[in-house]
Amino acid sequence: xxxDPVKKIQNVIKKAIDTGKASEAALKASKGEIVQLPLWRDxxxxxxxxxxRSAIFNVGNPRTKRAFxxxxxxxxxxxxxxxxTGIELRQDxxxxxxxxxxxxxxxxxxxxxxFSPYSMLKVLKWHPNGxxxxxxxxxxxxxxxxxxxMFSKRLGEGISVSLIHKFVWTDRQNIELDRWCVYLDxxxxxxxxxxxxxxxxxxxxxxxTPFEKWLHGYYASHxxxxxxxxxxxxxxxxxxxxxxxKFKQLLKKxxxxxVEIGFLTAAEIKDGKLYIFRKSxx
Length: 282
Prior knowledge:
Layout: H1 5-18, H2 24-30, E1 44-48, H3 49-52, E2 57-58, E3 68-74, E4 81-87, E5 89-90, H4 91-104, E6 113-115, H5 117-124, H6 130-144, E7 146-151, E8 158-161, E9 166-170, E10 176-183, H7 188-192, E11 197-201, H8 202-205, H9 210-220, E12 228-229, H10 230-237, H11 244-260, E13 266-270, E14 273-277
Parallel strand pairs: 2-5
Antiparallel strand pairs: 1-11, 3-4, 4-7, 6-10, 7-8, 9-10, 12-14, 13-14
Helix pairs in contact: 1-2, 4-6, 9-11
């Protein structure tokens, strides 16, 4: 069995074609066409709509113990259905995944996404020390140990992916490399489609708390925003707060922050629903 990730992907493609189950990305790859993510601006980070509207990356406190999920149904706003197997993921994990996707967009999916740990810590605005370097490695390890199954009307089929396919950070003598290498699953392209992804303003996101980041991502994924029930928001962000009053207060504080940074123009909680207002989106 080959350990080469590109050859492994080629084998998967051949098997999918032989069984009539090849995705559009796989068919393109089989014809020698380059399969890439969409090319967004350097100031933003791209993420599939279904993911940013769900509790895959929840708002849990990163200091608390993470749960393990096995084929768990994940809350999502919209017509998508998501199940997840793996260690609980949170907004700091999403930050790392967003940056890996960002680097990968300039090259073919399945090739090495290379970076130095220091450069990654710098762009995440994490301190460049041993503690955060270990946190970065632990995060990438979590993203590898994932299986995300997703179905939606726009996909027209179910897809199952690992958020990261492979991670190389030492050489054959187990000596740490100066530059790490991450490989993405080819099917990630299917989750993005051509237009079904959200572009997040990166500088804005880095100023936010986990709950503020989730709200920022969700509302960035819509050109028009409709009132949402507070309990719908709570389920979709994966909040563990049990007291409705405390959740409402946190929500009020969080949307006020989004107004402060200029992402929202106004927000109001009324009759158990959140109403938000943004400048018209092109």
